[in-house]
Specification:
CATH topology of the largest domain: MetI-like fold
CATH architecture of the largest domain: Orthogonal Bundle
Number of strands: 0
Largest sheet: none
Oligomer: single chain
Order of helices and strands: HHHHHHHHHHH
CATH superfamily of the largest domain: MetI-like
Distance between the termini: 71 Å
Number of helices: 11
CATH class of the largest domain: Mainly Alpha
Structural class: mainly alpha
Helix content: over 70%
Number of domains: 2
Radius of gyration: 26 Å
Length: 265
């Protein structure tokens, strides 16, 4: 008499059905997306030729263009990113404290603060730049304010999470000793969130350097203005010089942030 042996299966029938439904939904979403964006096959056929033609126009790179125009625009970009990050820290820290439930006990205030943070993150930096260009006019001021308001949601959210993750022991000890609120923040919360705060600030500055490089495309100052001008005039060799400068600055900023994080944290 032969005994029947149970056959091992990785997934249950229910799990296989769920996985099949998930994959079918992904394929359907992909097909629907391809139909909605209306890809024109004729434009894809000659894409390699167009790319080769564009690179041929960019070479040789106009290195002489850097000291006359690119350098000043690049410095303006760095100033926009740095000043925008500093303004962000002053604005986002209070909102982060209001969004942290263990500090601000009012649920209504928590939700209002989180609404501000979500509103900041949900609007793209280029849209913020368009709004501030309409308010302040074209220039670096509009770009700085766009960077600042775009970054509030990022910095405030991460800061609030760091505050909520703080260990309650030192906080309760200070409160039991009758320490004022300022001392509780500086002696209880700050030592615990200090590494996270500087990491958030440096990481956001690194992101802002990248984002501020394109704000000039909508008139918000910086290197993007020179890039938009070169592309509009079909000066592709100058555009190549600008792109190389942007790439170099982004790499330098990445190295600088990594070095500073190691030294500070």
């Amino acid at each position: 008499m032969i005994s029947s042996q149970a056959q091992w299966q990785r997934f249950t029938p229910r799990q296989r059905l769920v996985r099949f439904t998930w994959y079918l939904g992904m394929v359907a979403a992909l097909v629907l997306s391809l139909r909605q964006i209306e890809i024109i096959p004729e434009f894809l056929y000659d894409a390699p030729e167009q790319v080769a033609d564009l690179f041929s126009r960019m070479w040789p790179i106009a290195w002489y263009y850097y000291p006359t125009t690119v350098h000043a625009a690049m410095m303006e970009t760095l100033h926009i990113a740095t000043l925008g990050t500093i303004i962000t820290l002053f604005l986002a820290v209070p909102i982060g404290f209001l969004a942290a439930h263990n500090i601000t006990r009012s649920t209504t205030v928590n939700y209002l603060a989180k609404l501000v943070l979500v509103s900041s993150r949900s609007v793209n930096s280029l849209v913020w730049a368009l709004l501030f260009v309409a308010v302040f006019g074209p220039g670096a001021l509009a770009g700085t304010m766009a960077i600042a308001f775009r970054s509030i949601g990022f910095v405030g959210k991460l800061l609030a999470e760091a505050l909520e993750d703080a260990q309650p022991g030192p906080i309760e000890a200070l409160q039991a000793a009758g320490a004022p609120w300022v001392s509780v923040v500086t002696k209880g919360y700050w030592p615990q969130i200090k590494p996270a705060f500087w990491s958030i600030a440096l990481f956001r500055w690194d992101i802002n350097v990248r984002e501020s490089a394109v704000l000039g495309l909508v008139g918000a100052g910086g290197i993007g203005t020179a890039l938009e001008s070169s592309m509009s005039l079909f000066d592709w060799d100058r555009a190549a010089m600008i792109l190389v400068a942007i790439f170099a600055v982004v790499m330098i900023a990445e190295v600088a942030v990594t070095y500073l994080r190691k030294r500070i944290i």
